[in-house]
Amino acid sequence: MNPPDRLDAALADAIAGYRARNPGSERQLAEAAEVLPGGNTRSVLFHAPFPLTMARGEGCRLWDADGHRYLDALGEFTAGLYGHSHPVIRQAIVAALQDGLNLSSHTVREAALAREIRARFASLQLLRFTNSGTEANLLALAAATVHTGRRKVLVFDGAYHGGVLSFGGGASPVNVPHEFVVACYNDLDSVRARVQRDGAQIAAILVEPMLGAGGCIPGEPAFLHGLRAIADECGALLIFDEVMTSRLSSGGRQAQLGLTPDLTTLGKYLGGGLSFGAFGGRADVMARFDPRRADALAHAGTFNNNVLTMAAGLAGLTEVLTPHAIEALNRRGERLRTRLNDVFVRHGAALQFTGLGSVMTLHATNRPIASPDHVAGTDPRAKELLFFDLLERGIFLARRGLIALSLPFGDAEVDEFVATLDAVVAARRELLPVAD
């Protein structure tokens, strides 16, 4: 049996073992499919032959429907930064419930949370809350088009800004109908070419400082600073989508870069683990949403200021996520990524994790990666094999290879993950791509 055939056979055996170990999860998906298309209501969670159904979580551990225990290395796709049911956040939610769930009005906590977020992100002169990062990006783009009077939006191949703003491998058919201009990530020449053609019509340049769903590919500092200059030259607003990267420091990636976007979008963990989004930035842009103005832009949303998210977010930022805590988490992430990549180097395997701080993604190549083009065409089977092998040994991450650490994920968990990966790679070495 030649190597490709052996890899196919090994992957088939791994999937068969996964199916045999998880009948409860398979049964749950079949029952859910009676009322949900494919048993699914959140596309990223599905993978063949069926996803695990998780029954509970504690700290950085998960238990599935069949009673298996996992080290949670996925952290709810970066939203679960606090881990599962942090006692401070749980207490804040219970206290909020005692005061009433739906108050049909302004509340004290919303302004307090907004002040706390503004204190961390210097570019946010004014901000508004939404229910998700997707909504935050939609509202930021609406603000940019109204403010500039233009209709086109420059985005990047491989970017993800929400379920209706996705550009992995081209625009999604369910994207909202903005006039998108797509450029290559980390390629200022590509951006300049698009701006030379469409600059007078571009309302905004929307960019992730690190591609998230696109593979945790960091934006090069010169590239991101170059976007600031290009936006100024053509009169567009620069929007930083920091829904994922805000966790890289107390002030997000923009603080690390010393860069001030016109607008910033946020989400994920800032709501304490509950549904949350926010957008904000320059006062002159955000003032257009001031309802005291006769020409105010409308921004509705029943749960924009829901008391549970406001309480959980405020407790998390004021009592748990200190500057020391977030810096320590990202240092652990850097150590973890370095050690995981050392495993691949030691075994001569052409795989690597890319990312920044506490967020990273596995790729089936050891060559430098600066854009999604650099991983196009790589064989996904080795990654899939490692995914199922790690699950069997109690490590939970995304099928695509995403890892996002939570605060409870400490040095002992880093050691556990590294040792497990080392054992898996050693056992599968002959089936993995060979390093150049």
Written overview of the protein:
The structure is a single chain. The protein is α/β, with parallel strands linked by helices and 436 residues long. The chain folds into 2 domains: 3-81 and 324-431, Alpha-Beta Complex (Aspartate Aminotransferase, domain 1); 87-320, Type I PLP-dependent aspartate aminotransferase-like (Major domain) (Aspartate Aminotransferase, domain 2, 3-Layer(aba) Sandwich), CATH 3.40.640. Helix content is 40%, strand content 16%. The protein contains 13 helices and 16 strands. It has a 7-stranded mixed beta sheet, with helices on both faces. A 4-stranded mixed beta sheet has the order 1-2-3-15. The protein has a 3-stranded antiparallel beta sheet with strand order 13-14-16, with helices on one face. β2 (61-64) and β3 (69-72) form a beta hairpin. α1 packs parallel to α12 (381-392), α3 (87-98) packs antiparallel against α10 and α11 (323-347) packs parallel to α13. It is globular. The mean pLDDT is 97.
Helix content: 25-40%
Tell me the β content.
15-25%
Number of H- or I-type helical stretches = 13
Number of strands: 16
Radius of gyration from the CA trace? 22 Å
CATH architecture of the largest domain: 3-Layer(aba) Sandwich
SSE order in H/E notation? HHEEEHHEHEEHEEEHEHEEHHHEEHEEH
Task: Give the N-terminus to C-terminus distance in angstroms.
Answer: 24 Å
Shape: globular
What is the CATH domain class of the largest domain?
A: Alpha Beta
Give me the CATH superfamily of the largest domain.
Type I PLP-dependent aspartate aminotransferase-like (Major domain)
Give the spatial strand order of the biggest sheet. 4-12-11-10-7-5-6
CATH topology of the largest domain: Aspartate Aminotransferase, domain 2
What is the residue-mean pLDDT, rounded to a whole number?
A: 97
Main structural class:
alpha/beta
Low-confidence stretches: none
Number of domains: 2
Largest sheet: 7 strands, mixed
